[in-house]
Design brief:
It is a single chain. The chain is an alpha/beta fold and 462 residues long. It has 2 domains: 3-71; 89-356, Type I PLP-dependent aspartate aminotransferase-like (Major domain) (Aspartate Aminotransferase, domain 2), CATH 3.40.640. 40% of the residues lie in helices and 12% in strands. The chain has 14 helices and 11 strands. It has helices at residues 3-10, 12-29, 54-64, 87-99, 112-127, 142-160, 165-168, 183-191, 214-223, 246-255, 313-320, 350-385, 410-419, 447-460; strands at residues 134-139, 176-178, 199-201, 229-234, 258-263, 288-292, 304-309, 389-391, 399-404, 426-430, 433-439. The strands form 2 sheets. It has a 7-stranded mixed sheet, with helices on both faces. A hairpin with a 7-residue loop joins strand 8 (389-391) and strand 9 (399-404). Helix 6 (142-160) packs across helix 11 (313-320). The longest helix has 36 residues, at 350-385. Bound molecules: pyridoxal-5'-phosphate. Pyridoxal-5'-phosphate binds at residues 81, 141-143, 182, 184, 236, 238, 263, 265-266, 292, 304.
Length: 462
């Protein structure tokens, strides 16, 4: 064995204790970490011929990189939609690394990790109050989840037209209807050979809405003359967290032949709330749903799930099957994750989520979600009350989309606010107006955090 490897192995006890202390130090001071830094120069060190061992590398890391790690998992990072990591999820994540398992098959190979993944999916369905006629799995993020769902949708459309797209490739343009798709949906369509510019844009509702105008949707469906198509709808648009009318879409699905996908990356968590469940009413009728876990479930990156109706399992296998070996038998019956999703080898991605949902239960997630909604409203109430600011859209769930009374001042204001290092928000443009977005998805955020930021905002605004 290499000398440094042997040395590290003999010191594993003290190495792991050192890292435990360092982890604890970070997690107990993450509130005070700056939320942004000036990026260092991109100068690379040369890789040494002989390694220096784990402890020396840790010292080098602590000198060079550690002080620059930002508090993006802390309570005042409201940019993009960035979650934190609950204590239980950190434990689950550490153990994922320690055990280093790969969830391939559930049957015949004694691989428990695939069984853990299936149990986690079943429990997530309970958390989201979804019926158990969905199956699913873990992928790296909502981008890959959208990709997985839309790949199966693509196969469905092919089957409707008597084509096997997985085998023969895309021969014809597939109609894809959507109003306010997330950028990752557009990217997925490009990856899938469906064409990112082939989206047929459905009109949104009037006013400050990003949701589908249902009567416009009906007209567009009729214009397709019965051609099978894919409808991509939103449970939580990025700018204003708008929701399509799922009950109305479910009714349309009874009359028309389409695959219905919902990107519910973070908006799906409305299902956990005590007050906002009505936003996702009817979503259980979709064919596929995307949910991000590294956002509002507050587990570490990389974690998201895709949910696809069990009735479509064969289409999913046709799309993702990794092996045509006859000895594997029926690939729906002999369930094997490698035939249901893009990756072959994966880490045991479900374990952090399994730890967290079991550690905090339904009520724990109700508290996290309700608290984030309350924090968004606390900031939103301040914006409404202060004439120097203006809401660009109502606070529908957990995000505040606002601007300054002169929207053109918002960029300079945001730069100054983010430069304090005490908070981070994202720039946006909504209906032609420059604005700012603050998204609340972190379990740590308290009203003191919001009040601290409000005082900073008052100090900066003219
Ligand atoms: C964040 C997000 C995505 C992409 O998720 P990743 O985890 O970054 O891959 C997709 N859709 C919506 C609505 C999102 O908010």
């Amino acid at each position: 064995m290499n000398k440094q490897l042997a040395n590290d192995l003999s010191q594993l006890d003290s190495l792991l204790n050192t890292i435990k202390e360092q982890g604890l130090d970070f997690l107990s001071t993450v509130n005070e970490r700056p939320t942004s830094i000036d990026p260092p120069s991109a100068k690379h060190e040369v890789l040494p011929e002989n390694g220096i061992g784990a402890l020396e590398v840790l010292k080098a890391f602590n000198n060079k990189f550690e002080p620059l790690i930002v508090g993006s998992s802390g309570p005042r990072y409201w940019g993009y939609v960035i979650g934190g990591a609950t204590p239980a999820s950190v434990i689950g994540d550490w153990l994922t690394t320690i055990y280093d398992q790969c969830p391939f098959v559930t049957k015949g190979h004694g691989d428990l990790s695939a069984i853990i993944e299936q149990e986690t999916i079943a429990q997530l369905l309970e958390l989201f109050e979804l019926p158990n006629d969905f199956t699913g799995g873990f992928v790296t993020g909502a981008t890959l989840s959208n990709f997985t769902c839309l790949a199966t949708a693509r196969q469905w459309v092919g089957t409707q037209n008597g084509e096997d797209i997985a085998k023969k490739g895309v021969q014809n343009t597939i109609p894809i209807l959507s109003a306010s798709p997330h950028s990752s949906v557009v990217k997925s369509l490009s990856l899938l050979g469906l064409g990112s510019t082939n989206i047929i844009a459905v009109q949104t509702m009037e006013g400050d809405r990003e949701a589908i105008d249902i009567s416009a949707l009906k007209r567009q469906i009729e214009a397709l003359n019965g051609q099978p198509f894919i409808l991509i709808s939103s449970a939580g648009t990025v700018n204003t967290v708008d929701f399509d009318d799922f009950e109305a879409i479910a009714q349309l699905k009874q009359q028309h032949n389409f695959w219905w996908h919902i990107d519910a990356a973070f908006g799906g968590f409305a299902a956990c709330s005590s007050s906002h469940k009505q936003l996702i009413k009817g979503w259980e009728n979709a064919d596929s749903i995307t949910l991000d876990c590294h956002k509002w479930l507050n587990v570490p990156y990389e974690s998201a799930v895709f949910l696809v109706k069990k009735a479509h399992q064969r289409l999913q296998v046709e799309t993702f099957q990794n092996s045509n070996a006859p000895y594997l038998g029926d690939q729906v019956e002999n369930f094997n994750f490698i035939n249901f999703l893009p990756e072959n080898s994966r880490r045991l991605k479900a374990l952090p989520a399994w730890f967290s949902i079991n550690a905090y239960g339904k009520s724990g997630y109700r508290d996290i979600v309700d608290n984030c909604i309350a924090m968004a409203n606390r900031l939103g109430d301040f914006i409404v009350a202060d004439h120097r600011f203006e809401l660009l859209a109502p606070v529908r769930l957990n995000t505040v989309c606002f601007t300054l009374s002169n929207p053109d001042d918002s960029a300079a204001f945001l730069n100054q606010l983010n430069a304090t290092g005490k908070v981070f928000m994202s720039p946006t443009v909504f209906q032609g107006k420059k604005g700012i977005r603050a998204a609340f998805v972190n379990w740590r955020t308290t009203s003191q955090d919001v009040d601290l930021v409000i005082e900073l905002m008052k100090g900066i605004v003219q």
